[in-house]
Amino acid sequence: MRSIRHLLTGACAAALAVASACTDERSTTLEPVGDLGFGTNYARTATNLPRGTATFPVAIAASATPNTDSVIVTLAGLDSLTSASYTLWFANDSATKFARVTTMNIVVTRVDSSINAAGDPVFVPSSTTRTGQNSFRVGGSNIALRVATARDASTGYTAADSLNTLLISIEPGAAGAAPTEVRPLWGRRSQGGTTRVAPLRFGNFARGIPARAGEPRANQEFVVATNGAMTIVPRGRVEVRGKIMVSNDSNYFRPPVGYYYNAYAIKFDTTGRVNDTLYLGRRTSPLPARTSLYESDKTNPAPDVVFDSPLVIFAMATRVSRTRCPRQTPRRLGSTSGSSA
C-alpha cells in the first residue's frame, strides 16, 4: 500500500522571503555585535483540524422503520484528496465487524469571503448536492459537508448487528472488507449521551489493527483533537536574527497515521489581514541532528525527541535562511499540495 500523508500545519507569525543560500552573514571579531535579534513566544490559536459530529439511529439494532435508522454526519476541516478517497464505515463497539456505506447523499457547502467597499468582510455560502455516493474527495478550509445515509440491507447490517461506532477512513484504492490503517475520524454512540449526537475524534482509530512492534496496545488508538480542539497544548518560540529564522516548539502528539507536520510563515498587511502564506517545509528535530519527522506517524525517526509511550513529539524545529547572493534572484520554496504519495 502506498504511504499517503496529509498536512498538519504549524504556523509561524512571521514574514520571510526564502531564497537559495550561499553564505550566512554573522558577527566576527571585527564586527562583534552583528544583526539585531527578535523573538516571541507562540500563542495558541483556533485550528482547522478535521472535526464534525455523528448522529446515530434511534435504536442500536436495525428496525422496521427506516426513518429511525437514518445516520447524519457533519464534517469540516478535511483536506481535499486527489489519489485517495474518504470512505464511511459502520462498526459495532468492538470494531469486529465493519460495513462500508455505499449510498450517501452529500451536501457540500462552500463559503467564499471578500471585503466590501467599507472594509468589512462579506461571506457568501453556496451549496451543491451529490446523491448516491460511496466515497468523496472534496475538502478545504472553507468547505463543510453534511452526509446523510441510513442503516439498511445495502450496508450488510442486519437486525442482530449493533451500530455503536462510525468511522471515516482514507482509502488509496478500491475499498476492501475493512478500512485501511488510516482511520483519522470516528465517533461512538456512548460519547453522544442521550442526544445520540457524538463529537468526532481526530487521531488513530486502531481497533482490529495488529500492534506495532515495541508499542503498547493502548498507543495504537489515541485522540489528537476533538472537534478541532487539541487535547494537549503545544508551546514554543520563534527567533529572527538578520536573515535567519529559527522556530523551536514542543509538546505535540505524534500525527495520526497518514498525516505529518509542516511549517508556514504568514504575512499580514498594514490592516492586519493575511495576504500571503509561505511554505517553510516539513518539520525536523532540533539542532544538531535536524532529522526529518515526516515518518513519525508510523515509525520513530528521532528517539531522542520522539516518544513511543506516550505518543508525543517532545521537540520540533524549523530553520530558514534568507540570503541574497551576487547575480542571483531570490526564489521562494515551492508550495505543496497537502499530500504526498
Bulk shape: globular
What is the strand arrangement across the widest sheet?
6-5-10-11-13-14-15
Order of helices and strands: EEEEEEEEEEEEEEEEEEEEEEE
N-end to C-end Cα span: 10 Å
* Structural class determined from secondary elements: mainly beta
**Can you give the mean pLDDT?**
80
The percentage helix is: under 10%
Number of structurally distinct domains: 2
Summarize, please:
The chain is 0% helix and 40% strand. The protein contains no helices and 23 strands.
Structure description:
The chain has 341 residues and is mainly β. It has 2 domains: 5-44 and 233-340, no CATH class; 51-216, no CATH class. It has no helices and 23 strands. The chain has strands at residues 5-12, 37-41, 51-55, 70-76, 85-91, 98-100, 104-115, 121-133, 143-150, 165-171, 185-188, 197-199, 201-204, 222-226, 229-230, 235-241, 244-250, 252-253, 259-268, 274-282, 312-313, 316-321, 339-340. The strands form 5 sheets. A 7-stranded antiparallel sheet has the order 6-5-10-11-13-14-15, with no helix packed on it. A 6-stranded antiparallel sheet has the order 8-7-9-4-3-12, with no helix packed on it. β7 (104-115) and β8 (121-133) form a beta hairpin. It is globular. The model is unreliable at 10-23 and 324-341 (pLDDT under 50).
Defining traits:
single chain; 341 residues; mainly beta; 7-stranded antiparallel beta sheet; 0% helix; globular
Sequence-ordered SSE layout with sheet pairings:
Blueprint: E1 5-12, E2 37-41, E3 51-55, E4 70-76, E5 85-91, E6 98-100, E7 104-115, E8 121-133, E9 143-150, E10 165-171, E11 185-188, E12 197-199, E13 201-204, E14 222-226, E15 229-230, E16 235-241, E17 244-250, E18 252-253, E19 259-268, E20 274-282, E21 312-313, E22 316-321, E23 339-340
Parallel strand pairs: 1-19
Antiparallel strand pairs: 1-23, 2-16, 3-4, 3-12, 4-9, 5-6, 5-10, 7-8, 7-9, 10-11, 11-13, 13-14, 14-15, 16-17, 17-22, 18-21, 19-20
